[in-house]
Amino acid sequence: MSLNLIIEALAGSHDRSAFSCGVPVLDRYLREQANQDIKRRVSNCFVAVDRNNGVIAGYYTLAASSVPITSLPEDQTKRLPRYPTLPAILIGRLAVHTLYQGQRVGSALIIDALQRSTRAAPASFALIVDAKDEQATAFYRKHGFIPFESSQLSLFLPIATALKLFGS
């Protein structure tokens, strides 16, 4: 069976109770905290829903953020203005249900986050993430994310680079 996903904003109609990605803190976030963060305007949450059965195949969150220019590798700052910080969008959490892992759902979520970021009214230099572990870091690096100078678990993907990579 091929995947037939729709990615949309988390709503009360989505059944979050059976979501399991193998990381309890990410499962609990979707079930217990995501709606509160949305209501408080701390972050937005988007879910990939399998149209065949209504199951949430994965989710991610987006929030406004900034990046200190000094934390970027020198080759990334050559053509940038010398502002102390640059606007960015944080993918705060990204998780894929265990039933859908290995089926490129995570890639689809990153592409959706990129598309939403480029459509946002405020400009943004990059998508940023804080990977939970080396496996997550490898996943993000495979998608073109670059580690910050200060931490190999914190990565960024310049929006302009992403547009070229993903052909958007």
Automatic annotation (TrEMBL):
Keywords linked to the UniProt accession: Acyltransferase, Repressor, Toxin-antitoxin system, Transferase
A GO molecular function held by the record: acyltransferase activity, transferring groups other than amino-acyl groups
CDD domains from the UniProt entry: NAT_SF
Coiled coil: none
Annotated ranges, domain N-acetyltransferase: 5-168
Cross-referenced Pfam families: Acetyltransf_7 (PF13508)
InterPro entries linked to this entry: Acyl_CoA_acyltransferase, GNAT_dom
Catalytic activity: glycyl-tRNA(Gly) + acetyl-CoA = N-acetylglycyl-tRNA(Gly) + CoA + H(+)
Highest taxon of the lineage: Bacteria
Family matches, as PANTHER family: ACETYLTRANSFERASE, ACETYLTRANSFERASE-RELATED
Name this protein carries in UniProt: GCN5 family acetyltransferase
